[in-house]
Automatic annotation (TrEMBL):
<comment type="similarity">
    <text>Belongs to the bacterial diacylglycerol kinase family.</text>
</comment>
<dbReference type="GO" id="GO:0016301">
    <property type="term" value="F:kinase activity"/>
</dbReference>
<keyword id="KW-0594">Phospholipid biosynthesis</keyword>
<keyword id="KW-0067">ATP-binding</keyword>
<dbReference type="GO" id="GO:0046872">
    <property type="term" value="F:metal ion binding"/>
</dbReference>
<keyword id="KW-0444">Lipid biosynthesis</keyword>
<keyword id="KW-0812">Transmembrane</keyword>
<feature type="binding site">
    <location>
        <position position="76"/>
    </location>
    <ligand>
        <name>a divalent metal cation</name>
    </ligand>
</feature>
<feature type="binding site">
    <location>
        <begin position="94"/>
        <end position="95"/>
    </location>
    <ligand>
        <name>ATP</name>
    </ligand>
</feature>
<feature type="binding site">
    <location>
        <position position="28"/>
    </location>
    <ligand>
        <name>a divalent metal cation</name>
    </ligand>
</feature>
<keyword id="KW-1133">Transmembrane helix</keyword>
<feature type="binding site">
    <location>
        <position position="69"/>
    </location>
    <ligand>
        <name>substrate</name>
    </ligand>
</feature>
<keyword id="KW-0418">Kinase</keyword>
<dbReference type="GO" id="GO:0008654">
    <property type="term" value="P:phospholipid biosynthetic process"/>
</dbReference>
<keyword id="KW-0547">Nucleotide-binding</keyword>
<keyword id="KW-0460">Magnesium</keyword>
<keyword id="KW-0472">Membrane</keyword>
Length: 122
């Protein structure tokens, strides 16, 4: 009986997590753009026959970017809910999280570009 409850908790957790991803896709423009880029990277990597290890790294970098984008969006909503008026501290925290997303996007794009160029050159 205890195992059944654990399985139900897992299923419930997966439902909540899926709902979060769906909300991110439906309500966050940057998340939708990131998903589009991820699919383009996956398709391009497959078409160019990027080596499996490199393929996993670049796809992983873009998936990580999407995860951090969800964290950023969640923090912004939470901060706005608990402190609707402007706060310099909250504004700075939001900017720092956006900066983390920017750095990760630049790193993922750079890694993708380097691996694609290396693959094309052979």
């Amino acid at each position: 009986m205890a195992q059944w409850r654990k399985n139900m908790r897992l299923i419930s957790s997966l439902r909540c997590a899926s709902r979060g991803v769906i909300m991110g896709f439906s309500e966050e423009r940057n998340f939708r753009f990131g998903v589009l880029v991820l699919f383009a990277v996956m398709l391009g990597g497959w078409w160019l026959r990027v080596p499996p290890g490199a393929y996993v790294l670049i796809v992983g970098a873009w998936v990580l970017l999407l995860a951090v984008e969800l964290v950023n969006a969640a923090f912004e909503r939470f901060a706005d809910a608990i402190h609707p008026k402007y706060s310099q501290i909250i504004g700075t925290a939001k900017d720092m999280l956006a900066g983390a997303v920017l750095l990760l996007a630049a790193g993922a794009a750079g890694a993708t570009l380097l691996l694609v160029v290396a693959t094309i050159r052979g």
